[in-house]
Amino acid sequence: MNKPLILVVEDDAPVRNLIATTLKAHDYRFLTASNGESAILEASSHNPEIMLLDLGLPDMDGVEVIRRVRSWSNLPIIVISARSEDTDKIDALDAGADDYLTKPFSVEELLARLRVTQRRLAVPGTVSTESVFTNGALKIDYAAGCAFLNGQELHLTPSEYKLLCLLSKNVGKVLTHTYITQQIWGRSWENDIASLRVFMATLRKKLEQGPDAPQYIQTHIGVGYRMLKLE
């Protein structure tokens, strides 16, 4: 698997150097930027495949960087920030970030997040435009409107099926409660989020049949959900 080109956007020199040293030690190619304007310039000039982005930049908020990059690019953006409140995570994810890593972080966790993102880049149709999606024992035939687990058709309600399709088309990406409810029901009210939790619980029971079954859906408490990519 070829290593992607990574853009590191971090104004704190010691943290930037730590990330750069880690990437170099693991044979990643990388560029660095210390503020939002230079990050946008580097992203548009060099087409990096992944961005590691701090939110607390000197010239603009990192969320604004995400919004501006998202206006023309879908490159995966992993936020690395000292902001740990759910609202900060939700704002970044709703703006278009793919993942959120809170400082202080371990080098091992950073590398793990990069590997997950790299696998998404390497799998054709991860943000799926294909008519059939497969992930482990799960198969979704979008054209037929059916889902199967271990070759057996899953009996899903319309809302459960919509949720499963939305998560599968964004496999590996954290989707916020607000984003999901807007996509499923066209709005985001408090009652919709409560309903989402119920539908997600029933969907999980159908996907994860027994204590030894693989986990397909990961909960990010207070933020949203992510479908995991199984080997």
Helicity range: 40-55%
Whole-number mean pLDDT:
87
Major sheet attributes: 5 strands, parallel
**End-to-end distance:** 14 Å
CA radius of gyration is 18 Å
Give the number of DSSP strands: 12
Approximate shape: globular
Find the structural class using helix and strand composition. alpha/beta
Low-confidence stretches: 124-129
The CATH H-level superfamily of the largest domain is Response regulator
How many H/I helical runs?
8
Assembly of the depicted chains: single chain
Strand content: 15-25%
Order of secondary-structure elements: EHEHEHEHEHEEEEHEHHEE
Text of the CATH class of the largest domain? Alpha Beta
**What is the second-level CATH architecture of the largest domain?**
3-Layer(aba) Sandwich
